[in-house]
Amino acid sequence: MHIGIDATALPARLYGAANYTVNLVRALEQVDFVNEYTVFAKPEQRALFPDRERFHIVPVPLASRYFRIAWEQTMLPVLAHRARLDVLHSPHYTMPFAAGCASVVTFHDMTFFLYPQVHRAYKKLFFTYMMRFSARHASMLIADSDSTRRDILDFFKTDPGRVTSVPLGVSPAFGPLPAGPGIEPLRRRYHLPEQMILYVGVLEPRKNIITLIRAYARLVQSGVGQRLVIAGRKGWMYKDLFRAVDELGLSHRVLFPGYIPEQDLPVLYNAASVFVYPSLYEGFGLPVLEALACGVPVITSNVSSMPEVA
Question: Can you give the pTM of this predicted structure?
Answer without folding.
Answer: 0.89
